[in-house]
Backbone:
């Protein structure tokens, strides 16, 4: 059974009892000043999660929805209501105990009808929440079960592009239940046709379109190849040959916790990508302008409020920073 929740006994706090890591905004180029004010503050909103992920802004209800994958729960946060559990189960609806660490939902999105679309780890599918029930949109490719859909983005026509690494499988890439021998990036049309776009990436993760929909960005969360790729989008919706937009492999290490993960694009085409150290900000050419240093593994981000607030799911916390740009 799926429950829309407004009270749920999880060990989650809005009081921020634990001390967060030291955070700062690192400016590598003067262009960043036009995107983040020099006096911008990083706000701590809530803590106590196991691994926060997949934020999406719900403009109609003026709230942020985001996943806590190990807790198999979607939370909502707003200035008015603060933190509330919203949905459980969120990614695994089976009756048996889930043996892995990440049963819940990951990336979230809202379709044109306002329905919540979820990348579900445990159920290994893309699902739509409709009147309190999950509808499967995609769970197999050529008769084989997907690995564990991770993140998604809509194109202009409402088709879904999503990534499918193995992180939701209890045994990860070596899980005996893994049916596909690759990690794919897919396109799911509104009519239900599923197309494999590329299987060249080892750990495809975060995904987002440029404002003109002519470029698709995909993060690769592999410490040996910690890159963000850019792909030209063809007229038929498939992808051309990808190129490295940013290579953060040399940054990976204890001084810069985290890997390329979720990412978003602002109205001017700048890319805000989680990665080593926090949220890295790039201009349209891939120039690294600066980093919102969370100093903790950071999963994803999303623009919210009037479009000029960047909400960040940073390990066990939800934080935010005001921006001078807006998410498109």
Residues:
């Amino acid at each position: 059974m799926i429950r829309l929740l407004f009270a749920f006994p999880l060990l989650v706090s809005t009081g921020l009892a634990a001390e967060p890591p030291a955070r700062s905004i690192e400016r590598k180029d003067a262009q960043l000043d036009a995107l983040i004010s020099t006096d911008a503050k990083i706000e701590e909103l809530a803590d106590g999660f196991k691994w926060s992920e997949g934020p999406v802004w719900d403009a109609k209800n003026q709230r942020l929805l985001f996943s806590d994958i190990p807790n198999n729960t979607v939370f909502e946060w707003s200035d008015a209501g603060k933190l509330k559990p919203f949905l459980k189960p969120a990614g695994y609806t089976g009756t048996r105990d889930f043996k892995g660490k990440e049963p819940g939902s990951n990336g979230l999105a809202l379709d044109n009808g306002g329905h919540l679309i979820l990348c579900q780890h445990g159920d290994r599918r893309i699902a739509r929440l409709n009147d309190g029930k999950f509808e499967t949109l995609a769970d197999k490719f050529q008769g084989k079960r997907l690995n564990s859909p991770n993140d998604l983005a809509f194109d202009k026509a409402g088709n879904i592009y999503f990534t499918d690494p193995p992180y939701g499988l209890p045994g990860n890439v070596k899980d005996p239940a893994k049916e596909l021998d690759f990690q794919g990036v897919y396109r799911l049309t509104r009519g239900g046709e599923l197309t494999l776009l590329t299987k060249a990436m080892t750990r495809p993760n975060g995904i987002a379109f440029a404002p003109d929909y002519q470029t698709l960005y995909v993060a690769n969360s592999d410490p040996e190849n910690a890159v963000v790729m850019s792909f030209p989008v063809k007229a038929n919706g498939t992808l051309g040959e990808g190129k490295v937009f940013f290579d953060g492999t040399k940054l990976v290490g204890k001084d810069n916790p985290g890997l390329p993960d979720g990412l978003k694009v602002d109205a001017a085409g700048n890319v805000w990508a989680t990665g080593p150290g926090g949220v890295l900000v790039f201009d349209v050419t891939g120039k690294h302008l600066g980093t919102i240093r969370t100093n903790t593994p950071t999963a994803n981000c999303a623009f919210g409020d009037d479009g000029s607030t960047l909400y960040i799911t940073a390990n066990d916390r939800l934080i935010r920073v005001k921006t001078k740009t807006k998410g498109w």
Confidence is low (pLDDT under 50) at residues 6-11. The CA atoms of residues 225 and 249 lie 6 Å apart.
